[in-house]
Automatic annotation (TrEMBL):
Gene that encodes it: Dper\GL10459
Protein name: GL10459
Annotated GO CC locations: nucleolus
Keywords: Metal-binding, Nucleus, Repeat, Zinc, Zinc-finger
Biased composition (Low complexity): 157-172
Domain Zinc finger C2H2 LYAR-type: 33-60
Originating organism: Drosophila persimilis
Superkingdom of the source species: Eukaryota
InterPro entries according to UniProt: LYAR, Znf_C2H2_LYAR, Znf_C2H2_sf
Length: 287
């Protein structure tokens, strides 16, 4: 609560008691008070708007630059300040067409720091502490409630607009992402580098060779060549004849060094595995 010092008699006065003080103790004098916290002077009705003042810590922080004040987080004080904002908004508005009595009531409420925010408590407070008639207290509350609802609706509308703006921004980002993905899908394939293309060209014959070599019937071809020679066939001659058939099968005129090495290795292995043939010295004969 804000406290004032009367500049006429020097007495300390609470804000709600300033009016009474100048009607009794300093009667006939013009109101002249100073705030005990910020030491600011107020003349006439100026003190009414002084609803909140700096704390003692803030006062000494202004005098010493090395002293830092932590702002207090008093939720009740914040709510009370919002309540005062509503009262000031009503006084500044021309919507309510306040009668002189109602305007005086709201001006008196401005000088109080602990106005209740519930209907029953509010009516009891203004009736007991401010001697406000019951009917007038009800009228004041109805106006306060109307302004409060109006502010709530404005705040909800503001929150809804902010939410819609966020959703629109998120949808815009999602659409841009989808468009980018679609463009990447529809875009023509990138040209492959010469190294990658050459590697594919080199790999293609090798794959073809592996496929063809796997399909080559070694046992049948060996047996077929040897069966035409009643007395058998020399190993090297058999190898040369089979090499021609193998080259024709893999569609090359002459095997590469790698292909030839693979052929000789497979030839020796398949000859040993062939049950219908036998090796007699340098001759290969049918069993």
């Amino acid at each position: 609560m804000v406290f004032f010092t009367c500049n006429i008699c020097g007495e300390s006065v609470k804000k709600p008691s300033v009016e009474k003080h100048y009607q009794t103790r300093c009667r006939g004098n013009e109101k002249n008070v100073s705030c005990m916290d910020c030491l600011k002077d107020f003349y006439g009705e100026e003190y009414v708007a002084h609803t909140k003042c700096i704390s003692e810590a803030q006062k000494y922080a202004n005098q010493s630059q090395s002293f830092v004040v932590k702002e207090s987080r008093n939720k009740n004080a914040q709510k009370q300040e919002s309540w005062m904002d509503i009262i000031r908004a009503i006084l500044d508005s021309s919507e309510y067409n306040l009668t002189p009595a109602l305007r005086t009531a709201f001006q008196r409420l401005q000088s109080v720091d602990n106005v209740p925010r519930k209907r029953a408590k509010f009516e009891n407070f203004v009736g007991n502490c401010m001697r406000m008639p019951r009917q007038q207290a009800t009228q004041v509350w109805d106006i306060l409630e109307k302004e409060l609802n109006k502010m709530k609706e404005a705040k909800q509308e503001q929150l809804a607009q902010a939410k819609a703006a966020r959703e629109a921004a998120q949808n815009g980002k999602a659409e841009k992402k989808d468009e980018k993905e679609q463009l990447e899908t529809d875009a023509p394939p990138k040209k492959k580098s010469k190294v990658a293309a050459d590697a594919e060209v080199e790999a293609a014959p090798e794959e073809s060779e592996n496929t063809n070599s796997n399909d080559f019937d070694w046992t049948t071809q060996l047996s077929k060549i040897v069966s035409k020679q009643a007395d058998g066939i020399y190993l090297e001659k058999l190898k040369k004849k089979l090499l021609k058939k193998y080259s024709k099968h893999v569609s090359v005129e002459e095997l590469s060094e790698k292909q030839a090495k693979k052929f000789h290795k497979r030839f020796d292995k398949q000859l040993k595995l062939c049950a219908t043939l036998r090796l007699d010295g340098d001759l290969v004969k049918s069993c």
